[in-house]
């Protein structure tokens, strides 16, 4: 068994044995969902998000892909896709980290200390820089509207009913064979 494969299995097993609720996609240890709670002392407190994680074959040398399935209002998270800014992940990622670090350190720090100078959500970044109180209010509105148990169930229904998730993935070579690009 290769070292990256062993590391993937070890990290995912640690996450499965932790207090986090983890759901594997098709029993695949390289793709799963984790229920993540907003950190205390932030406007995200009380919110619950379903986070989609994909581990590349080169993990831990290459960072995981992380996306929020239910909406979140944050400068470094794309509101429509839920993708977390790759620069943010790649700048801080090290093979020394494991999946527990993502949910206990990385994501809480990202929510506590957003970086409005490198935004994926320009509206959130502008509001944070110009009117921090309004930004906090809007975050709380999103938490109440989209980061509830009901919202997670809705996110679950959408993602699990569409097993091939083609809207989230690029076209395959077979799909593009007859297309003019």
Automatic annotation (TrEMBL):
Coiled coil: none annotated. Residues 3-148 form the UBC core domain. Transmembrane segments: none annotated. GO terms for molecular function: ATP binding; transferase activity. SMART domains: UBCc. The keyword Nucleotide-binding applies. The active site is at 85 (glycyl thioester intermediate). The keyword ATP-binding applies. Pfam families: UQ_con. It comes from the Eukaryota. Residues 153-181 are annotated as: Disordered. InterPro entries: UBC, UBQ-conjugating_AS, UBQ-conjugating_enzyme/RWD. Residues 158-181 have a biased composition (Acidic residues). Keywords: ATP-binding, Nucleotide-binding, Transferase, Ubl conjugation pathway. Belongs to the ubiquitin-conjugating enzyme family. This is Ubiquitin-conjugating enzyme E2 8. It comes from Thamnocephalis sphaerospora.
């Amino acid at each position: 068994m290769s070292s990256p494969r062993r590391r993937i299995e070890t990290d995912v097993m640690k996450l499965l044995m932790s207090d986090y609720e983890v759901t594997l996609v098709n029993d695949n240890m390289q793709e799963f969902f984790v229920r993540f709670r907003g950190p205390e002392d932030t406007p995200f407190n009380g919110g619950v998000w379903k986070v989609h994680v994909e581990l590349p074959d080169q993990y831990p040398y290459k960072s995981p892909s992380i996306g929020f399935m239910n909406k979140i209002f944050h400068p470094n998270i794309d509101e429509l896709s839920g993708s977390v800014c790759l620069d943010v992940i790649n700048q801080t990622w090290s093979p020394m980290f494991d999946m527990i670090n993502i949910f206990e350190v990385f994501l809480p720090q990202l929510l506590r200390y957003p970086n409005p100078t490198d935004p994926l959500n320009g509206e959130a970044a502008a509001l944070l820089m110009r009117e921090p109180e309004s930004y906090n209010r809007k975050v709380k509105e999103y938490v109440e509207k989209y980061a509830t148990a009901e919202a997670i169930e809705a996110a679950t229904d959408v993602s699990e009913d569409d097993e091939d998730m083609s809207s989230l993935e690029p076209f395959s070579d077979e799909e593009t064979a007859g297309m003019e690009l």
